[in-house]
Structures are given as C-alpha cells and as structure tokens.
Amino acid sequence: MNxxxxxxxxxxxxEIVGKKAEELDILSPEDLHDITHDxxxxxxxxxxEVIIRxxxxxxxxxxxxxxxxxYRGEREILATMADITDRRRIEDSLRRSNEQITGIANTIPxxxxxxxxxxxxxxxxxxxxxxxxxxxxxxxxxxxxxxxFQSGIAPEDQERFLSSLDQAVKTESKWEFxxxxxxxxxxxxxxxxxxxxxxxxxELLFSGVILDVTAEKEADNSLQSERKFSQxxxxxxxxxxxxxxxxxxxxxMNRMLLDALEYSEDEVKDKDYLNTFVPAEDRERVSDIFRRxxxxxxxTLNENxxxxxxxxxxxxxxxxxxxxxxxxxxxxFIGIGxxxxxxx
Length: 344
Prior knowledge:
Elements: H1 3-9, H2 13-16, H3 21-24, H4 29-42, E1 44-53, E2 59-71, E3 74-83, H5 85-107, E4 111-118, E5 123-128, H6 132-136, H7 145-152, H8 155-171, E6 175-182, E7 188-200, E8 203-212, H9 214-236, E9 240-245, E10 250-253, H10 255-261, H11 265-268, H12 273-277, H13 283-296, E11 300-307, E12 313-324, E13 330-339
Antiparallel strand pairs: 1-2, 2-3, 4-5, 4-8, 6-7, 7-8, 9-10, 9-13, 11-12, 12-13
C-alpha cells in the first residue's frame, strides 16, 4: 500500500493492513458486492467508478481497477484507485451548464446556432438548438445540418445568401441575412439570420439565431399591396388630391395634380404649399382658410387658385378635411379639388 492511498482515504497503512474491506466502511456494501462479483466472474475489474467514504466522513469519487494475482502461493487482489472527484465535479458543472444553455436556447423563439470557419475556409457546425425541426423541418444532426440548411434555401436567394456569408467571414463582421427557405413539406417560410463573430486562434466563431419571420413578411407584403392599391386609386382619380401637414408643407399629391402643376413627386415633397403652388395675390386668403382648418378642425368648401411651374393658373373648387391624431391634434389635412377653370 503506497502513500497515495492515505492521501485519498485519509487512512494510514497501519489502519488498513490486516483488515477486511467490510470492516473499513470505505466502500458501500453494494459497490463492494459488485466488485467482488466481477472479480470472481472475470478475475478483474477495470475502471469501475464508485463513491467512497473517507476517514473524515466525507465522500470522494474514485475509479478502481483490480485483478487477482498469485503471491507466495496465495490468491491476492492487486488494486489501484484514482481520485476523480475534481474531474467529476467539473464534468457535473459542465453538464449543468450545458443543460442550462440548452434550456435557454430552447425558449428563444428561433434556432440558436454556432459554427466555425477556420483559416483554410473550412466550415463546421458546433451547436444547433432543438427548434430546427419545428421551424425548418430538417434534422438538427450536427454533421448534416449545414448542408441541409443551404440546400433548402430558395434558388433565387442562394447567390445572395453565399455572398452575404462570404462578406461576413472576410470582414469578420456581423452576418445578417433574410431570405426564403423551402421546407421538406414544400412550405416556404421567410427566415432571418443574425449573428456576430469572435476570433479564437485560427478559427472564426459565429454565434447567432435563425428567426422565422414569415408572419412579419406576409404582413409587410400585404401592407405593400394595400399601399400600391391605394396609390393606384389616387393616381387614376380624375380629381386633384393633396395632403398638407400642420406647418403648411406638402406631404403628397396625386398624379392628376402633379401633371397639372408640372412637378414630379420628389419636387413637391416638403415644399411650402402656399409659397410654391398658390399665386402671390391669393396666399393671404388661402392662409386664412388653413388657419381656420387648424383652429376648429372643420371641413371646408372653397374656391382658390393654384399655379403650375410654367405659370399656368387653375381655378379649383376644394373640399378640405382635417386628419387628427389620437390626442385630437392636427396630423395633416387633405384637400380634394375639381378644376373649374372652364366653368368660370
């Protein structure tokens, strides 16, 4: 028995030699039975992990190996013991940490991932959370995920996807991408990746999340369609339509009014309506109308003139109505006009 045994168990050799294992209470009866059984059955025990009780009453985790040997005509047991308490504590801590990370990752409304790119350009996946099947409909198997993910990206988005990733790797900058993914069931979803790199020696580690933004994109597309439809109605309307904010700045004009005034949409944006589109001699009267609308938020019906870029004057019958904020304050007012120049 060497000194290492005393270091592990706290027992000196004089306290151990000549005593049976049952007397020492170092091993539990169950572990002692298992070790004895294995020795009798196969004549050896190889790397059995057990918990022992040491002299001060505390516990340690050790690995025991033992074998029967013949010594001076007697069958004896030659055994070794290695203290792995610290290693087991570290392993348990890492396991708990991994369980916590996995638990957190699985509560995030997306797929948490981490991959590396080494200096030779080789990619490898380190981690992907379990929501990958739910969102993308593919396996979260580490060895195949990157291939499956890239293959599922819509053909029209493939080049843009690879270009964005290549740029992020070259510049060691954030990688953000939005595109379409074709699931194995044929359903197309919109996804967005957001990740940031950290250099570790000769590897660039990207940690981030893949989000399903299908609902957001569909709502945005629907809104865009509604805007286009509304703009179409404005543009084909045979009347003049203008929106002006509370400071008298032009917000928009429809196509009919733009063509009459000989301006483009960009040219009228934020222009002072009175000083740009109303003849100088009419500005004070029109200004009074604006003040009345701002003051009592009432609809108006009036006739006043507008002038084009080339100096052509139109007499217009205007119907004006304020648009209010939830607070009751004026947001902007809108005017709908009919050219009555020929009637006068």
